[in-house]
């Protein structure tokens, strides 16, 4: 009996081979299609990713812009707070520096006081105000016109110092030759005892130096609340001046006077020519605000500052400008007191009748009372306060 394998026909073999070929083709087609698809995906994805990134960046920029716009008020507020804090710090430093200078000045005054007491010299009591009347060797008649009108003399002058704390002195230096002019002042001083002599050579172009020396001198002698400078051709009501200054007694750094801002004169030959006019900008510019030189007052701390820094304070041609420049960079209250620059009659007379007594009167055209020797009595009669006004309580 033959073996059990069934015979396979050639047709069947052909069909099986064809089926296997077709199956393999289909399988291969699927396998190659998938990588192509994945490859295409790989090519597309980076392009899509860049687009997404740009979109994201754009959205973030818009978001930040909106936040900036929304918070701009807050940011500006923070900037302003920072700026104000810096300003406050600057002011604090300036105040501390000035207080240090004042402390040194007071220490120096105390030391001088002890030395004077040790040498049996009498020390004046603490003063309310010291009034320095700027005068010259040629102004004897002007000085007499003041002694005959608003300035007490003799026992009344001493009483004013003792009871009211008001010290008044004519301020003058020395002549270049130390000769007859100085002896004339010595004789006048022996008669009236109302001079303050400075270690200074007199001269019109040396007024800034004289002013600096004046404040340095008086603060070393009198511990006053205020120090006043006035010219010898100005009419002054002492009682009104005392009342006016008393209003600012509690303020540590005040500069009181008729504030102005006049032109800087560059032309040579003019009375108030400023040789350093280029420091104030272009020709035709004006000075910074400062008190007119006929009369002004400063508080103790400011006088102490001038005394301590005397050697490095710059002096301009005009004395009032110099003082203003010394104080303009400090924490100082500028008080524009218009009663300190009234005109002579009829202006000051009208104000007196209306109950607005002037502190000081003069003519702007003359930078003082015009023809003061002849007119001071008339001005005093028309615009002067009563004798009792000076002795009323402050």
TrEMBL record:
Q: What is this protein called?
A: Hexosyltransferase
Q: Which GO terms describe its molecular function?
A: galactosyltransferase activity
Q: Where is the protein localized?
A: Golgi apparatus membrane
Report the InterPro entries cross-referenced here. Answer: DUF4094 (IPR025298), Glyco_trans_31 (IPR002659)
Quote the Pfam families the UniProt record gives.
Answer: DUF4094, Galactosyl_T
UniProt cofactor(s): Mn(2+)
Which key words tag this protein in UniProt? Glycosyltransferase, Golgi apparatus, Manganese, Membrane, Signal-anchor, Transferase, Transmembrane, Transmembrane helix
EC numbers, comma separated: 2.4.1.-
Q: Report the superkingdom from the record.
A: Eukaryota
